[in-house]
TrEMBL record:
<dbReference type="GO" id="GO:0019646">
    <property type="term" value="P:aerobic electron transport chain"/>
</dbReference>
<dbReference type="Pfam" id="PF07992">
    <property type="entry name" value="Pyr_redox_2"/>
</dbReference>
<keyword id="KW-0285">Flavoprotein</keyword>
<keyword id="KW-0274">FAD</keyword>
<protein>
    <submittedName>
        <fullName>NAD(P)/FAD-dependent oxidoreductase</fullName>
    </submittedName>
</protein>
<dbReference type="InterPro" id="IPR051169">
    <property type="entry name" value="NADH-Q_oxidoreductase"/>
</dbReference>
<feature type="domain" description="FAD/NAD(P)-binding">
    <location>
        <begin position="4"/>
        <end position="317"/>
    </location>
</feature>
<keyword id="KW-0560">Oxidoreductase</keyword>
<dbReference type="InterPro" id="IPR023753">
    <property type="entry name" value="FAD/NAD-binding_dom"/>
</dbReference>
<dbReference type="InterPro" id="IPR036188">
    <property type="entry name" value="FAD/NAD-bd_sf"/>
</dbReference>
<comment type="similarity">
    <text>Belongs to the NADH dehydrogenase family.</text>
</comment>
<dbReference type="GO" id="GO:0003955">
    <property type="term" value="F:NAD(P)H dehydrogenase (quinone) activity"/>
</dbReference>
Amino acid sequence: MSQKILIVGAGFAGVWGALGAARVLDGAAVTTSDVEITLISPKPELQIRPRLYENEPQRMAAPLLPLLEAVGVNFLEGTVEAISVHDKTVTVMAANGQQRTLAYDRLLLTSGSKLNRPPIPGLAEHAFSVDRIEDAVVLERHLEALAKLPDSDARNTVAVVGCGFTGIEVATELPGRLRKVFGPDAAIRVVVVGSQPDIGPDLGPNPRPYVSEAFDSLGVEAVLGAGVVSVDVDGVRTASGNCIEASTVIWAGGMRASSLAAQVSSRLDSLGRVEVASDLRVPEAPDVFVAGDVARALCDDDGRYALMSCQHAIVMGQFGGHNVAADLIGVPTLAYRQPFYATCVDLGEWGAIYSEGWDRRIKLTNAEGKARKQIINTQWIYPPAPNRTEALAAGNPQASYG
């Protein structure tokens, strides 16, 4: 009977994890009759989540079946509802409602993260998001339907709640999208609402002046220093009593790790991520490895931890896939390290800013930054072609990633 590697989640970490695991087995001449790799996800596609602030979000999915077939990885369509590290099993719910239990010899958990939706009155009923393709499509249809409503300040106003990366990219993309809906001369208002005193609190001082310049150029407003306390059909109210009338509210209030993390470890950080060893193993469950948004992993020797980003998830997935297969066949695992870090923030029609290093040294701005962002969004974060040689090479954790 063959041994089983299960990979839970087909996000960036899961896809590159599957390639990394297949690469190890291929290099050791281990056949699929000896070790089976199975990727479990609700759909056989990678949602290109970093692009969901753009228009036509339904295009932002990469098919996975040809790629997985090329490297000998099985795909199981379904949602993992439970993990038992004691029994070494996962419980999967299929789309038709049938439940099945699968055993594993090694597990790679890459179930990702979800948008944090706190119990703010009216948030669930009235706010849109770009968390998944399905959410972004609902938002796009809503924006298109606004043109059928009578012209008013509220109709032409969008409140974006959240002043981090996602909030900034959504807000700066909106003026162009709204002009396509209402016409080039419409009086459009986009307001970013945040509880922090500064826009982009995690960006640091170097990129922030460029973000402010882009906001001024695009006419995007910022209402900061007070969080939203309620959302309704008329807009949002902040803790300071500020009311912003808006027919559209978009929630971009941060991410939290998948709840499956708590089923493999009791050692979680404030974002719900699993505290992992250097090789991404769960100390409490040594047959389980974790990668991507669900892992709290040191990425360099200076004490910095990986962020919830595709940049870190791809490389962490390569290491996680390598290690889950290596550990199974008795090959030494590798310590995850990713010292290079870059940031590229899209700022709509103004352009983009590209920086390098954790202190975010600005390298490219405006049109040059936009060109880099387009390369990242349309090439670097997409899976390789379904060619076995190219696909296995993409799973190499020690290859450079730009």
